[in-house]
Amino acid sequence: MVIHWFRRDLRLEDNAALSKAHASGKLVQPVFIFDTNILGRLEDQEDARVSFIYAELERLESEISAQGGHLWVLYGDPLAIHQKWADDPSITGLYANRDYEPYAGQRDQTVHALYQAAGKESKWYKDHVMMEPKEVLKDDGSPYTVFTPYSRKWRSKFDLGQIQAFPTPTGGWHPSPSTEHWPSLESMGFEKNERTIPGRAIPSAVLAQYEAKRNFPALLNSTTRLGVHLRFGTLSIRALARAAYPEHSKFLTELIWRDFYQMILYYYPESPKKAIKPAYDRIEWEHNEAHFKAWCAGKTGYPLVDAGMRELNATGFMHNRVRMVVASFLTKHLLLDWRLGEAYFAAKLMDFDLASNVGGWQWASGSGCDAAPYFRIFNPESQLDKFDKQLTYVKRWVPEYGTSYYAKPIVEHKAARERALARYKAGLASVGS
User: Fold this and answer.
1) Dist CA 291 CA 336 (whole Å)
2) Interior CA angle at 384 toward 379 and 398, to 5°?
3) Cα angle at 299 between 318 and 303, to 5 degrees?
4) Taking the chain, what is the end-to-end CA distance rounded to the nearest angstrom?
């Protein structure tokens, strides 16, 4: 039999590696490993993402068992677990989909070597993105750092064949029991979180109106809210691309941004900690704990910022337009290091994806790829007037807005803007000194 290692592809349908494993003609044993190296970084015992994964694994087990197989779920160090499987004569190979994050890439290279050393096949496939990092490069082979030319090259290489669905398995599973392999949430140090997660069905009506409505957070159907499903692969990126192409070009552009940030993280693996534009690491950030706590709690006195942070804290989601506003506010108005915001989003977002999160925060701070010039600073008041003029979104999350109980602004916009411009200018000027 061969192993299929589920990771960021928690589905049977349109799954590249899983489909290839079944096409091999060998019995397939599906597995999932709760990686202690990843779970060990999580501080919240009720992390909703862990509960989401666990529920999706239970769904997978139900679907697989209906076809005569079982899903193995383990908790531990993937390297130690795969070493045992590589040494097991009943297992002849491994199939998995590629992951482009720095830790995952190093881990997977080691796992691949284990199977090769044992004389067994180890096959890896593209599934998490539409275009892999090495597929869209400049003519000289270097990575793009500006989105528009990347997008043009991406579109020039795109064809419908790249998003065709892979066949869904209907049998061919290794008939092994699974009960002894499953850890409980409690045994891994977590508790069940009952947070409601949007379904994974693709909302065609949202796609049809996406370009017109995408910037208005009060509209509940302005975005697909499918980010968590793309993050954990409960929905195929190809399925979403097929639904978007060719009528919904603006939505397809958002998926290209996703590939772009995956490419950036692949070629700039230190970007979660270091500015892609090194000069921006010379900026002198403030160290105001009270301001950071106010931002986290949604008590800055700027209603659009506060509404966004409260939505994040309560649901694990935040509208994309609002994400840009709150990120700009932290880095420009409060002059707090973008890495603080990136880490907070990483801990709270249901759809947290390292590449997109780091890319978005570096964009907001001006230090990343294709970022707006540092002197472009979002005015949270004009953003509110433009995108939530009726205050529908704000009043949904900040019910005390307009009363004496609402927080006073912790900084004054004009003074904060001037401080940011001066601080950025000084930091960038110091590079040449």
Assistant:
1) 9
2) 120
3) 60
4) 63
The answer to whether the beta carbons of residues 9 and 71 sit under 8 Å apart is no
Residue 375: CB atoms within 10 Å: 12
Amino acid found at 262: Q
Mean pLDDT, residues 383-403 taken together: 98
Spell out the domains of the chain, with CATH numbers in brackets.
1-127 (3.40.50.620), 129-164+204-267 (1.25.40.80), 278-428 (1.10.579.10)
Report the 3 state secondary structure along 4-63.
EEECCCCCCCCCHHHHHHHHCCCCEEEEEEEEHHHHCCCCCCCCHHHHHHHHHHHHHHHH
Q: Count CB-CB contacts under 10 A for residue 35.
A: 19
Degrees, nearest 5: CA angle 363-330-373: 35
Please write the tens of the pLDDT for every residue from 296-355.
999 999 999 999 999 999 999 999 999 999 999 999 999 999 999 999 999 999 999 999
Q: Which residues contact 271 (CB under 8 A, 6 or more apart)?
A: 264, 265, 358, 359, 362, 368
| Distance from C-alpha of 340 to C-alpha of 320, rounded to nearest angstrom | 19
Give whole-number Cα distances, 210 to 51, 176, 204, 250, 276, in Å.
30, 45, 10, 8, 31
Buried b (16+ CB within 10 A) or exposed e, 124-147: bbbbbbbbbbeebeeeeeebbbeb
Cα–Cα distance between 90 and 222 in angstroms, integer? 50
Active site residues: 254, 257, 285, 320, 338, 361
| Rg of the chain on CA atoms, in Å | 23
